[in-house]
Write a structure and sequence with these properties.
The chain is an alpha/beta fold. The chain contains nine helices and nine strands. A six-stranded mixed beta sheet has the order 5-6-7-3-8-9, sandwiched between helices. A three-stranded antiparallel beta sheet has the order 2-1-4.
């Protein structure tokens, strides 16, 4: 079976001359959960934007083989969750989640079932009429995730969505995201700089080195057991964290070995 997503020798250089990414070759299978792990400035966010079609690579190609094999053109529907919730402050939780359907010109009545299902899936059924100012940081991020999922995308891209949250809220949302992914069957590409988060969530961790961003390691997190508190306390989790941490240290050393910094590179 062909991969869902294939990046072939992808590089990105900004108009300022900053090389953000260099020679990224990566295949991602349908239905998998992949984390992009790396230090700030290694191009993780830039890579995510290229996958989303929000920007174009300077060289190389990004294609969707499994999508094309099914006789479909272009790219699959993609949901994107940014670092900040970016909610409309004047709109209710319901209307914030309904926004992608409204942009698709789907009527309020026609999209009502999808909106209410998305609200239920993120545990905010009692807050549909609430304004963003009435929500906690974690609840705002739940709204952002529900908004990304309301169109039932085949791919969900998340750019460090939990980085600004406290540890307890972050772990709770990690648990919720795993459950949403298992129930939804979509593909996830998740950007993080947290070793522990990447190991808990992912079946695969792609470690990026900086200046310019390139793949330093590709690690499988092959765990059949449920991703829950018991997994977080297990020797297997500790060992995978050690491996990911070692790979991250190596990636950072690769970046430090390159002459000069890369101001302006994202991610």
């Amino acid at each position: 079976m062909p991969p869902l997503l294939s990046l072939d020798h992808v590089s990105k250089t900004f108009p300022t001359g900053t090389a953000a990414l260099s020679d990224i070759t990566l295949d991602i299978a349908d239905g998998t959960f992949v984390s992009l792990l790396g230090p700030s400035g290694c191009g993780k966010s830039t890579l995510l934007r290229l996958v989303a079609g929000l920007d174009s690579p300077t060289s190389g190609t990004i294609v969707w083989p499994a999508f094309a094999a099914a006789g479909e053109r272009g790219r699959p529907d993609i949901g994107f969750v940014f670092q900040e919730p970016t909610l409309m402050p004047w709109a209710s939780v319901y209307d914030n989640i309904r926004l992608p359907l409204r942009l698709k010109r789907i009527s309020r009545s026609g999209g009502d079932a999808a909106v209410r299902e998305a609200i239920e899936r993120v545990g905010l059924a009692d807050f549909a009429a609430a304004a963003p100012r009435e929500l906690s940081g974690g609840m705002k991020m739940r709204v952002s995730i529900a908004r990304a999922l309301v169109t039932r995308p085949r791919v969900l891209l998340l750019d460090e969505p939990f980085a600004s949250l406290d540890e307890i809220t972050r772990q709770r949302l990690n648990n919720d995201l795993i459950e949403l992914w298992r129930d939804g069957g979509f593909t996830v590409v998740f950007v993080t700089h947290s070793v522990h988060e990447s190991v808990f969530l992912s079946g695969r961790i792609v470690v990026l080195a900086a200046r310019p961003g390139r793949i330093a390691a590709d690690l499988a997190v092959d765990v059949a057991a449920p991703r829950d508190r018991a997994f977080r306390l297990s020797p297997a989790y500790a060992e995978f964290c050690r491996r990911a941490s070692d790979a991250l240290v190596t990636a950072m050393e690769m970046g430090e070995a390159d002459p000069g910094d890369a101001p302006g590179a994202s991610g």
